[in-house]
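Usage

Read records sequentially. Each one opens with the input sequence:
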Amino acid sequence: MTPVELSRSVLHAVRCAVDDGELNVVVPSRVVVGRPGPGGRGDYATNVALQLARPAGQPPLRVAALLRAYLAREAGVTDVEITGPGFLNISLDRAATSAALVRRILREGLRYGHTDAVAGRVFVLCVPYEVRAEVLADVLARMVGSQGGRVEVRHGGAVKLEPVPASEERALLRPVPAPEDPAFLGPDAARWALLHPAPHDRPRITADHLVQRESNPLFRIRYAHARTRAVSRNAADLGFTTTGPETDVKAPDTPHTPDTPGVQQLLALLADHPRVLATAAALPHADAQAAPSRLTRHLLALADATLVHLPAVLPRGDEKPSAAHRSRLALAEAAGTVLAGGLSLLGIDAPDHL
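and closes with the structure output:
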């Protein structure tokens, strides 16, 4: 279950409580779930009870107790605890949730994380005639498109003086310009150099973006993707894949169980991918303009976690391929799919061989 899906489950619990007359509130359009803070427990936490307490005219702990009963019925939720002034701490069935997540990624492929959240909405992005602004606008358009919306790009400074129609959502994009033309880096490295820093940071246009070493973040991401493809080819040579009627994609198990920190981090990053893509749909708010930079950092963290996982995928020595190996292979292929999809949104190639 991804944070986005869990958020929907929390909303469903609120809606059920309202329908049953337990709460007299307007169901919010969205709720936020995140990692538990200090003193929290479980996999995720939400402050929805505190958010609804005042409009409901009830103490937060009372609202939390009401919602706890409804939320505990949601599929994939194993436990709900109340901490502090009314935080709901949610524990998930990790094995079932992890298996469902991996299956979903392998089923949806490069469209994993794509939604219709802003379908039909058009955002106008006003940008100067400058290479970094052009690239950022292109990636924002791709990311908003992944959420069902559309971006129109308009150029020049004069547009900001035009009256804004009531139906138009307009944002002005003015990142710190590139200090020099990055064309000598080639299309992929140039885009990375312009996208990786936050819009308010000055990009670094140097040949470091071309080195084939771990010190180069773009290389690590593309290398991790290429390694997942190589592992799949090697597994096929050994006679096992993640496809076929006999394959049951489980959560990675011994010696890499869902409770193993490395695998749990990888699963968490995969689950968080839809939320990272959805940050671009907050246009025209200025914070959404950093969505491409967030995506680069997310892919880098995912690549590092993937590289930790890969050595355990294939059988070693006289080991025979088992369900555990198929499970680990499925997780590796899911990671590779998300890396490729993320790079595609950045307009960067994801080669199978590197």
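Summary fields computed downstream for this record:
- Residues 67 and 252 are 32 Å apart (CA to CA).
- The radius of gyration is 22 Å.
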